[in-house]
Design brief:
KH domain-containing protein, single chain, KH_dom_type_1, 3-stranded antiparallel beta sheet, 6 strands, 50% helix, KH_dom, globular, alpha+beta
Length: 185
Amino acid sequence: MQHVKIPQDRIGVLIGEGGETMREIEAAAEVRLDIDSENGSVAVETVGDPVLGLKGPEIVRAIGRGFAPEDALRLLEDDMMLFDVVDIDAASRNKNDMKRKKGRLIGEGGRTRELMEELTGADVVIYGSTLGVIGAPQEVDAVRTAAEMLLDGAPHGAVYSFLEEKHNEMKHKGMEYHRFPGGQS
């Protein structure tokens, strides 16, 4: 059994209307969730497939970090799906610096965050003092690098170029990987 602590304001999202979301997570990840709505503590107990059960705490953690339940459940799509968190607070000197860096990650009208999603294929959420990412390893890695570049003060243009380069790289690898093997004898 694992214990995960999530913010108070995310407990309702984890439980869902009439416990619907909680039951969906329990069924999909083959776990049992024991939610303490007083302190935000969630006990995650594996009741079925232990490999699926390992993803249970990650799903709860992802919802706690601002992801919608359906996005968090993407972690079950594939063994390679990852959930990663970039701590904005750790890269900041003070409250104002944190606000500024968070603003850089979000971008004007949310455009920078959207571009991170579009160009990598990962889901990106900025909540509280963290940036959360769900995706395949190379997608998560590209978003983490882009976020760190922005936190270090790199110009947005340079970060967008990096993301486009990664996008083309991933697209090219995908094409090679899925090439039709037949046809030549």
